[in-house]
Amino acid sequence: MRLSRYFMPILKENPKEAEIVSHRLMLRAGMIRQQSQGIYSWLPLGKKVLDKVNNIIREEQNRAGAIELSMPTLQSAELWQESGRYDAYGKEMLRIKDRQDRPMLYGPTNEEMVTDIFRSSVKSYKDLPLNLYHIQLKFRDEIRPRFGTMRSREFMMKDAYSFDLTREGAEHSYNKMFAAYLRTFDRLGLRAIPMRADTGPIGGNLSHEFIILADTGESEVFCHKDFVGFDTPGENTDFDSVEGLQAIFEKWTSLYAATSEMHDEAAFNAVPEGDRLSARGIEVGHIFYFGTKYSEPMGAKVQGPDGKEHFVHMGSYGIGPTRLVPAIIEASHDENGIIWPASVAPFDVVVINMKAGDQACDDTCELIYAALSKAGKDVLYDDTDDRAGTKFATADLIGVPFQIIAGPRAVANGEVEVKDRKTGARETMTIEAAINRFVA
User: Fold this and answer.
1) Is the pTM of this model over 0.90?
2) What is the rounded CA–CA span in Å between residue 398 and residue 31?
3) Where on the phi/psi map is residue 351: left (φ > 0), alpha (ψ -120 to 50), or beta?
4) What whole-number distance in Å separates Cα of residue 184 and Cα of residue 64?
């Protein structure tokens, strides 16, 4: 992509409304634009990152055996009345009526709808276990939306829903998502710690929030510091192994970790003083097991091997992609801007033409741009006539992992400079070597 043809409205000044680093940098980098309170458009640069986050989430859900579908954002109030949650959910739910005066709602979550889909199609235990997920915009009318897309009213969620014949089966499904979440966040460059959590309006008696530690976190969290060094489940994790996944779950829940709502001061004080970690945290995922909370009132049952009908045991599992993007920025930035992990960076490399219009610089940049693009790399080519300082500031602000800098003097010697955005290290090398570094 040529920067001269790209839509990336950079802001030179810090926006006054931005309270935290991620909100400030997302606005300055032209990733998002606020449309109304707590509601944002995702501009091209932001959408590229969001799409890459979603792709990683999708890959790990699929690896764990979940199956993707798509459910509508508008839901019938009848389903929520059937489950008993329509009146209990509170003012966060946006309630509306259609032209036939039928009560509808803009879905804040999908337990009722997916249960309705399940009960209309699945009748036998032979079709279990089943885990259905989708990635969808949702709406919760937050009383105080803040921090940009970190806590917005309209947001994107990956929500998955598992169905099992027994509690034991449901716990295995829970462990699948537990391990998949650890892998997902690790691939996003984050260290997420699973913490015992309150189930809230979702319900149930087993729940974990996945928390990344950050000074701008909304809540206080307490945990053993050894979590920071735990190994994440590998790519070869067997998601069919009950014992293997239980071992992962037990390891990652063997030490104290809890959000403020579930904090036990006495239990935390039992942790050796040097191993206690008290910090602010950002929730990036939340998983629940709630048994038959929805299946019983909504009649979701299957015929078991004993010939009798059984209400299915369910769980739900959420990740907020539009919250993850700012969370990654909170965890990875410096005074010059964002530092994206390679897995979600909007571009793999930015080619900076230090003197657009100079034939040698133009030819060199075109050569590099074409070679890297042909090799499948996502390349941003800064072909603008901006000053060098502006080009460098833009490249640092948007956080592309590597910069290839082509200036007249270096190009005359058949060389370019390669900068590592994360470390700041610069290396002069031949044009051919620079291309080979990224296509080898």
Assistant:
1) yes
2) 9
3) beta
4) 11
